[in-house]
TrEMBL record:
Full protein name: Uroporphyrinogen decarboxylase (URO-D)
Gene Ontology BP, a term: porphyrin-containing compound biosynthetic process
GO molecular function: uroporphyrinogen decarboxylase activity
Organism: Candidatus Sulfobium mesophilum
Domain spans labelled Uroporphyrinogen decarboxylase (URO-D): 3-341
SUPFAM superfamilies xref list: UROD/MetE-like (SSF51726)
Pfam families: URO-D
Amino acid sequence: MEPREIILKAFQGGKPERVPVTLFGGGMWSIKDYGSSFEELGKDAAKMADMCITEADRIRSDVIYVGSGYNNFHASALGTAFGAGIKYREIGAPDLTAHFVNSEEDIDKLNIDDVHKDPVIKNVLEATRIVKKKIGGKYLVTMTCWGPFTLAARFVGEEAFMKYTFKKPAFVEKMVNFCADLLIHLYAPLVSDGTLECLSIADPTASGDLINPKQMAKFAVPPLKKMSDWAKSKNTHTILHICGNTSDRLEQFIDTGCSVIFFDQKVDIAKAKEVLFGKMCFGGNVAPVHVLLNKTAAEVEAACKEIIEIAGKDGGFVLVPGCDIPPTIPYENLKAFHDTAFNWKY
């Protein structure tokens, strides 16, 4: 079986020939390893695609995440008319320079079509097509985005947005719904032309460390469900990652309708299996800093084996870090992470 077939079987709750394994995102590590920068690749779709293809064979994850690190452009594309832009950093992903939505009236001023006018977004979409054409038969090719709750907070500003969940809940609901529509509009061309068979959604501001289960059920789950329902109607899968400890709301991931949830290292992976096995594919949750960055390759292997023993022996599981990885992780540790799954045969 090819890596793509292996992970898709897990998404369906099955038990493939080995444990599926992938990074989540990996843009910062891959670009550093390739010897380029976010700014350089954002101007050149062919070079961005070459980076993804080169690093795919070096890293060997089952999933290739095109556009990892460029998620803030999905907000800045609509914010140009309001003075917002992008700032490239020496270390880390490009950041949004300003927040520009404060009311329902501001939402009405946004033009959803602007997302396809941004030159960097155009290059990410074109790079995704190139990568899919060249290696999409072997690997599962996806393109990344923020989840609706996180993207909405990028438009508004995180601190204000959190306050508005209490003070202006109708505004928050309208904003996250708008963001779901925006993301569907973003992905639509790649889904309709057959490039994508999987969306990749990171919703870190919906973290279990930032919002409680009631807030998640009211503001984060419904727009995710809107996206996954749309994806399913197009025979497309959805990967979801949410940061923080979400052990107190595991059932809500089923409600999102997503194909798989990749858990933060803070989540009790045994409890996650108890709640989700047979209902939803899940992945976890090797600590990206404590283990992958700071441990030896042998210790990485031992940590991976422990997680597989607890949660992954029966299928419907993916070995994955607890979040995106730092760019300074030694290659030997990434190799040990992947090799552990490759060598674990069902």
